[in-house]
Design brief:
single chain; 95 residues; mainly beta; elongated
Length: 95
């Protein structure tokens, strides 16, 4: 029987896409408050630290005939549906 090398199927608990390694990113959110009657700001807009998280979904994936449960971002799921491949991985499908 042929051996098939599956990409990072080991399910770790980190919040990372298992195909493209998309993960949580630090950033800032701005609130823009206007002054009286739409003039300039009275003071500088406050900045709040925040996290931007990827939209991860648990899906069953078939890679070369082998079924595996993976945590993928929605962009990777869309690529699998439309193109049936991602990067070096061919013959990939959703179950």
């Amino acid at each position: 029987m042929n051996k098939v090398e599956l990409p990072c199927i080991i399910a770790d608990m980190s919040y990372v896409c298992q195909l493209c390694d998309k993960k949580t990113v630090h950033g800032q959110s701005h609130t823009h408050q206007r002054g009286v009657a739409g003039k300039r700001w009275k003071s500088r807009a406050p900045v709040t630290k925040r996290l931007f998280k990827p939209n991860l979904q648990d899906v069953d994936v078939i890679i070369a005939g082998v079924t595996a449960k993976m945590r993928l971002c929605t962009k990777c799921i869309k690529r699998i549906r439309n193109y049936k491949s991602i990067g070096d991985i061919k013959n990939i499908a959703l179950q």
